[in-house]
Design the sequence.
């Protein structure tokens, strides 16, 4: 009951409360395990450590997440490999993935890749032995996560290979099998692949469909998470068009994003979306300057910069702070 209460508080975004409840649950299961040797207690104990890790990740306490995930994996490896309870293999792989996420944030890239490789190796064997959608789904998510780490390592060609493996699986599951819960993951795979080509400075018309696919997928829903990803996809496509010297189309793309945010601001007045709105106007002004429309660009900048300064101060968002500097530099050009 205490552990489930922790999960409930985590869903309510009260991570501090959930952490204290998970810790209490762990203490109980440790006592049960030491006194009775109840086998199920090991699994519950491992789950408790895993959920502490998840809460710490949400709180951006990546260093603090190390110990609980190490404890979790130690228990699951014993459960799976020593005790032979193969039904817990999925849980072990999930823990490897969490450790991979933590190590990625801590800039320990090679070690992060090693964790994903452990999970990928297990699930590739499971998928080959039994062609189940759940195995394919997990494989695709591990491929996407590994590709993200490879980008951080500047191993871009290898990142492309894993993003493509992921999109091949996710396209089948989402578009042909109708597993809509994976729609977000498919969009992120398209967007990730498009970003890699940008980092490679491979500016070619053939990459634009990847941006379009990402936008189309993210526009399938209107919940905040999808809107955030859609805005990022609009921005990425506009920046790519800019690299192709297609400034008019880039400006139009930013305008689509601006209008999309304005529709959403009516439903969600959070500072995050006001900040995105101002940032898009700054980006839009950049293309207006390239098109020689400096007076219009100046009006956009003079309206957007003060708003973004307020939101950057209120949220501490470094992305917004950099955009303020970018906007002031552009204003000097006008």
Sequence:
């Amino acid at each position: 009951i205490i552990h489930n209460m922790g999960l409930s508080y985590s869903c309510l975004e009260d991570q501090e409360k959930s952490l204290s409840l998970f810790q209490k649950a762990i203490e109980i299961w440790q006592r049960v395990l030491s006194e009775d040797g109840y086998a199920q207690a090991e699994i519950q104990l491992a789950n408790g450590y895993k959920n502490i890790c998840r809460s710490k990740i949400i709180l951006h306490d990546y260093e603090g997440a190390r110990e609980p995930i190490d404890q979790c994996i130690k228990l699951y490896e014993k459960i799976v490999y020593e005790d032979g309870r193969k039904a817990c293999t999925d849980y072990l792989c999930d823990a490897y993935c969490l450790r991979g996420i933590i190590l990625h944030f801590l800039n320990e890239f090679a070690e992060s890749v090693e964790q994903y490789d452990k999970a990928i190796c297990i699930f590739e064997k499971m998928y080959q032995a039994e062609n189940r959608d759940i195995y394919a789904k997990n494989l695709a998510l591990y491929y996407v996560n590994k590709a993200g780490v490879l980008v951080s390592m500047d191993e871009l060609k290898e990142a492309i290979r894993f993003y493509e493996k992921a999109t091949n699986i996710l396209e089948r599951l989402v578009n042909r099998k109708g597993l809509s819960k994976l729609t977000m993951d498919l969009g992120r795979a398209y967007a990730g692949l498009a970003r890699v080509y940008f980092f490679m400075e491979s500016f070619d018309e053939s990459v634009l469909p990847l941006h379009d696919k990402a936008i189309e997928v993210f526009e399938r829903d209107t919940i905040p998470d999808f809107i955030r990803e859609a805005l990022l996809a609009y921005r990425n496509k506009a920046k790519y068009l800019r690299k192709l010297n297609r400034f008019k189309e880039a400006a139009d793309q930013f305008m689509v994003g601006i209008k999309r945010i304005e529709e959403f601001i009516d439903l969600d007045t959070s500072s995050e979306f006001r900040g995105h709105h101002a940032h898009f106007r700054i980006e839009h002004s950049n293309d207006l300057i390239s098109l020689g429309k400096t007076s219009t660009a100046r009006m956009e900048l003079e309206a957007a910069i003060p708003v973004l300064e307020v939101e950057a101060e209120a949220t501490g968002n470094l992305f917004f702070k950099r955009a303020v500097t970018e906007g002031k530099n552009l204003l000097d050009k006008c």
Remarks:
- The chain has a mean pLDDT of 87.
